[in-house]
Amino acid sequence: MAEQASPTPTPTPRRPGSNGHSAGSERHAGAAERTADEQRRIQRRIDDAEDHDDGSSAGNDGPMQAGARPYPAPPFPKQHQAKPGFETALDPPPMYDAPYYKGSDKLLGKVAMITGADSGIGRAIAVLYAREGADVALLYLNEHDDARTTQEAVEREGRRAITISGDVRDREFCLDAVERVVQAFGRLDILVNNAAFQVHSSRLEELTVEHFDQTVKTNLYGYFFMAQAAVPRLPHGGAIVNCGSVTAFQGSEQLLDYSMTKGGIHAFTKSLAAHLVPRGIRVNAVAPGPVWTPLNPSDKEADDVTHFGGSVPMKRPAQPEEIAPAFVFLASAHCSSYITGEILPVVGGYGG
User: Fold this and answer.
1) Structural domain for 217, as ranges
2) Local structure of residue 219 (DSSP, 8 states)
């Protein structure tokens, strides 16, 4: 039998394309070029718009005013106070009375105890708690005139108030204060830990042991002692609201010790919340940004006070009456019965 010749292999046809690339590769390359063109067109439009922008499209570049009434913004008058700072000497006076805030019995029949209640955030909390129906115990260090002003403000709301002067670093004072509140009002439903010590330090080496101890014992021991004293008196449904700080989130180069304690307060809040769930007591915290209170002129140099709060996106510090509603929210079972262990930032915006 004659041998058959092997068939000649048929060459596989090559798909059209340049340089040996497949048609699929060419399509991908073309799509990439078109996307790059689109991106450049977007870029040119933005560049052209910015080149011709006269500033009018950006709106008001000044401090943000989104409240019921306008609030002061930097520059502030130069001022510095001796510790612990007094609201009566602050220029302009902090705005705490929230005239457009209408109460709705969120805390009706409750008794609240507030540390650092003579001025600043503490005073604004006291006023709104009273407007929501609570009687209030005002704890403070030695700012007697400021404390009397806060007491009068609470009483104008139609509620009772007592003032108690003392040092929250002293555990015996904390225990005694709780008993005095219960004797005066018959109960205790809400503890607000708000008292704080803050003094800047430009260099780590300048932060003395005395300074460090004052900060830690006021801001951490004080919160712990007050909670330890109050918890046995708080009922099922009671609440603790701590005052944290934005510095616990982002740090502060000149407030090393203060930032550390505020981070501790946030951790304490979460831990104590878990600890007290079986007892029906909620624990939360508010973390304010810059707030116009006596704490700051008694911490900062006069030149620094002038620009206080100007670096946040809203370009101004909060007034105490802008912070206090967050404390109402977290204290009221009508508003936050399913919230415990949370940190609520009120910081004037992000991304500035």
Assistant:
1) 91-346
2) I
Q: Is 111 helix (H, G, I), strand (E, B) or coil?
A: strand
Q: Which one of 100, 258, 338, 350 is the catalytic residue?
A: 258
Is residue 114 domain-resident? Answer: yes
Count of the separate structural domains present in the chain: 1
* Cβ proximity of 288 and 243 under 8 Å: yes
342 Cβ contact partners less than 8 Å away, ≥ 6 residues apart: 284, 285, 330
Least Cα distance to 192 among 326, 32, 99, 66 occurs for: 326
In a domain, 7, yes or no: no
Which two tokens mark 110? Answer: 């409750």
DSSP-assigned letters across all residues of 237-273? T-EEEEE--THHHH--TT-HHHHHHHHHHHHHHHHHH
End-to-end C-alpha distance for the chain, whole angstroms: 93
Tell me how many helices (H) and strands (E) the chain has: 11, 7
CATH of the domain at 135: 3.40.50.720
Is residue 258 part of the annotated active site? The answer reads yes
Output the six-digit token pair for 177.
């204060």
Asked whether residue 224 is domain-assigned, the answer is yes
Q: What's the pTM?
A: 0.85
Q: Is residue 3 included in any domain, yes or no?
A: no
pLDDT single digits (tens) 2-61: 445 555 555 555 554 445 557 778 888 888 899 889 889 988 888 887 777 665 545 567
**β-sheet bridge partners, residue 137:** 113, 162
Token pair listed for 73: 């913004």
Contact, 154 vs 107, CB < 8 A?
no
Element (H, E) at 162: strand 161-165
